[in-house]
Amino acid sequence: MSQVAEAPGSEDGAATGKDATYDGLRLQKVTKSFATFTAVHELDLDIPRGSFFALLGPSGCGKTTTLRMVAGLETPTSGSITLAGADITYAKPYRRPVNTVFQSYALFPHLDIFENVAFGLRRRRSKDVESQVHEMLALVELETQARKKPAQLSGGQQQRVALARALINKPEVLLLDEPLGALDLKLRRAMQIELKRIQTEVGLTFVHVTHDQEEAMTMADTVAVMNKGVIEQMGAPSVLYENPRSTFVANFLGQSNLIEGTVTGRSADVTSVDMHGISVSVPTARTHVDGDQGWIGIRPEKVLIGEPGEALDAPGNTIPGGVITDVSFFGVSTQYLVRMPWGQELQVFEQNTGRTRIFGHGEKVELSWRPEYAFLLDHDQDATAGADRDD
Amino acid sequence: MASTAGTSPALAAASESTRKRGRVGYLLLLPALAWLTLFFVIPLYSLVATSLFDPSGSDFRGYTMSWAWGNYTDALQEYWQPLLRSIVYGGIATLFCLILGYVLAYAIAFKAGRWKNLMLVLVIAPFFTSFLIRTLSWKLILADDGLIVNTLQAVHVLGSDGRLLATPVAVIAGLTYNFLPFMVLPLYASLDKIDHRLIEASGDLYAHPAVGFFKVTWPLSLPGVVSGTLLTFIPAAGDFINVQLLGSPNQRMVGSVIQSLFTDANNYPAAASLSMILMLLIVAMVLVYVRRAGTEELL
């Protein structure tokens, strides 16, 4: 604390002075070890003020532990957490300008909805509790339920109470721990839109922890993909999806075809890769390999399918010799599994625009994709990492 | 059409099964009903009747029912002191049990970790010895030349001829000791049910841990507090063993009066009316208490 206060001009001003000017939430080299394992390992994270930030990862990746350290419910083993320039690493939870929407809401069962929402205000002896609570209940559309007990509300309503109870305190950062996990699919979609609306309306920093990649991508401005205690990649959802840096991100965010290949030539723009005897090219900006061996990645919806020898409109990478082994018709799209000459099965999504006919099982086809859609990942990584999601 | 045809037998089957469930429910009540009729309703009837018998009756001459309501006023007039003392001693012992028991139950529920089960067994362990033996051993603990009395004399809390036995302190200590497990177990049961995240949530919402305790933990443990205090207070107020072994006639509680009226004086009408007064008093207090604690709302 004292370091930050006297930062300008002091000896370590260079290190802490930067923090003092950063008005968001900053985690520096944060590590959390429990008796038998390390949940979070030297995590560095900058979350800008006012952003909707998602921490995405499979269960046990350390995302909830990270959240709990920001909330003050766990103490980091080492590292520091600063919020708007103030060091809060060891601050007690009740002294932090941070509120949490808990996974199972943790509403107080003995208090009615009004008193649940008023809890934080009353603890801080705030004025106009009455009007503030009514205003907040109006925002989450629960004014008529004010005198009910939490158990009398539905899951979606309880979720909104939990949100209101945290939001009313106008925290610097609102933490959401899998807030939609207990809701059914339809309600979850509705609440995603609702949460996004409320975040834009109140303009607070939201840090959202989830294992649902779709939820993270639809709601957040920035997504950090976390795996085994470290952040694999961070960025806007579209960047993560289009240009993943690791096989884990490629598989965890959506689906990817990963095909072995050897780099044969590099230029500033294009990297040529030999893929089982076929030469394909990948934009150099999308290559993330150390050696010559790599995984060529292509999203299933970027792959075009056609008759053998058909001139598909994609110039560039054309891969002949595929045989269809499975067809699933979804209405809006058709999903194919195509066995390639080297034995691997690739996934292909085709929008049912009527442009091409729907192929049948056992038919010979030709695949093609535009070079700019492909990416190249390091061969040392496990091609199946992050592929088996348990949700 | 087929579906409508299909539903009617299903509906019939459903109502059949509800009827069956109802009948089974009543059948399951029967043993307890028989037991309570035999050992509660009939004795209670007999007690009420005895309390209204002619007080001049005796074992030799027999008793006659004379609707002697005067038995009640006589009993109150003559024994109001032991009656009041019972309420006061029982109340103080219950309060001590609540303080000791709450701290213990809280520790077991929230802090004991893997020692939880062992600690619960230890709470119940005293029941493996008889109530009398345990109370008698308090006679040794509080003996006139025992460690506690000697220590208290040495630090001048007690005078040089001061004693603990035959004082209210001994009686209340005995009551507190004997009924403590009845307080701890219900308290533990309701504390253990509290979702730990609620306490985290109160901290997250700016409640200092002490405030969080009074705003969240305490109200959620009220069902345990109510049942624990009832399970302690009711037997403690009616107890006569602790007074008999640890106290003196000066600490006579209503339980010992009733016991001696029944067994030594053979004054059944007075004993019965005093029993009824004690019972009605406790029922009235319990009703007021439960209503004020507002616990029905929590359930």
Explain this structure to me?
- The complex is a heterodimer of chains A (391) and B (299).
- In chain A, 24% of the residues lie in helices and 33% in strands.
- By secondary structure, chain A is of the alpha+beta class.
- Chain A is elongated and about 75 Å long.
- Chain B has 299 residues and is an all-alpha fold.
- Chain B has a single domain (77-297), classed as MetI-like (MetI-like fold, Orthogonal Bundle), CATH 1.10.3720.10.
- Chain A binds chain B through residues 71-73, 92-94, 98-100, 102, 104, 106, 108-110, 119-120, 123-124, 165-166, 169, and chain B through 195, 197-198, 200-209, 211, 215-216, 219-220, 297-298.
Protein structure class of chain A = alpha+beta
Compute the CA-based radius of gyration of chain B: 26 Å
**Overall spatial form of chain A:** elongated
Provide the CATH superfamily of chain B: MetI-like
Write the layout of secondary structure elements.
The complex is a heterodimer of chains A (391) and B (299).
Chain A: H1 2-5, H2 13-21, E1 25-33, E2 38-47, E3 52-56, H3 63-71, E4 78-83, E5 86-87, E6 98-101, H4 113-123, H5 129-139, H6 155-167, E7 173-177, H7 185-202, E8 205-210, H8 213-219, E9 222-227, E10 230-235, H9 237-242, H10 247-252, E11 257-266, E12 270-275, E13 278-283, E14 287-288, E15 293-298, E16 304-306, E17 317-329, E18 333-339, E19 345-351, E20 364-369, E21 375-378
Parallel strand pairs in A: 3-8, 3-9, 6-7, 7-8, 14-21
Antiparallel strand pairs in A: 1-2, 1-4, 4-5, 9-10, 11-12, 11-15, 12-13, 15-21, 16-20, 17-18, 17-20, 18-19
Chain B: H1 2-51, H2 70-111, H3 116-124, H4 131-141, H5 147-154, H6 168-192, H7 196-204, H8 209-238, H9 241-246, H10 254-263, H11 268-293
Helix pairs in contact in B: 1-11, 2-6, 2-8, 2-11, 6-8, 7-8, 8-11, 10-11
